[in-house]
Amino acid sequence: MRSLLFVPGDSARKLEKALTSKADALLIDLEDSVSLEAKDEARSITSEFLQENVAGSGRPRLYVRINGLSTGLAEADLDRIMPAAPDGVVLPKAVGGADVAALAALLSRREAGGARAATRILAIATENAAGVFALGTFSGSSDRLVGLAWGGEDLSADLGAASNRTDSGAYADPYRLARTLTLLGAASAGVAAIDAVYTNFRDMAGLEAECFEARRDGFVGKMAIHPAQVPIINAAFAPTTEEIARARAVVAAFADNPGAGVVGVDGEMLDRPHLLRAERLLARAGEVV
Ligand code: COA
Ligand code: MG
Asked: What digits encode the pLDDT tens for the residues 140-197?
């Protein structure tokens, strides 16, 4: 998933709009963008939307962000949305693999017979300091876990920070640490690393720059808050034709030299990590390798 677009779950209008956004996934929100008074209406609108847009109709993947496990709202969220079979659930304020395992148990109890263990989990894993310290604990927590996302907004609130950016606009140290540990935590758990939202939704150049940095470092996608961000994210995370050609050349070089641990391509030494990187890139581009 390259682009994951947040849509407030109490807005039928935005949900309809989001369907045509070309986002790979919609993250339908029951949490922070929905006021306490609107939670119940949001559950109804969301579950209706899920029922009207069943899988296989060419729609984006539909994930629902429930309220955090410690809010007392999460189980009521699940009770209302699980009968409508979302593709996945987004867990905010996650503190490590224990929270993912707890959510997995809640999902198992609510999945209809034929769909056992079908509901995926995406954890937002850096929303508080405890979550950052637990980033190394996701491995083996649940087969449902598909990705770890990081975010700097709630973390800055938890830290009591005045801002999460430096004067030059870059993320300040605590957020860079959270970002890096998310990347490492996701890799060690064998799941996708997803980059944080870019909240200034009119600044497309800033968004694009952040996408390129994320992609360079190993993130495979980025969350969005506005439909206008989706095409930029999709383009930035899609492998380019040059990258695909290069990856094909690397795979071919190893295939032509069976048993070789190291080969040379265009004057560059390539060994196993290069082959793995090339295979991953081709897999992301939709090619079976
Ligand atoms: N999903 C679907 N449609 C969206 C959208 C989104 N995330 N954000 C904006 N739109 C729609 C608007 O409804 C509007 O459509 P309309 O003209 O037909 O009413 C159109 O896109 C243009 O929106 P714009 O005027 O540029 O922005 P806005 O002021 O209406 O909305 C936000 C700004 C930030 C309130 C809105 O983008 C939003 O709700 N984002 C998601 C917030 C969220 O879920 N946060 C939680 C995770 S951090
Ligand atoms: Mg939040």
From this structure: 999 999 999 999 999 999 999 999 999 999 999 999 999 999 999 999 999 999 999 9
Q: Is residue 262 part of a domain?
A: yes
0.90 surpassed by pTM: yes
What DSSP element (H or E) covers 88?
strand 88-91
Count of CB atoms within 10 A of residue 46's CB? 28
| Residue 262 alpha carbon to ligand 2 centre in Å | 46
Structure tokens at 138: 């996701």
Q: Does a structural domain hold residue 289? A: no
Q: Which atom of ligand 1 is nearest to the CA of 32?
A: 46
Residues having CB closer than 6 A to ligand 1 are: 5-8, 13-14, 17-18, 29, 32-33, 197, 201, 225-227
State which residues form the domain around 265: 241-284
Mutate to test the pocket of ligand 1, among 17, 20, 223 (most ligand atoms within 8 A of CB): 17
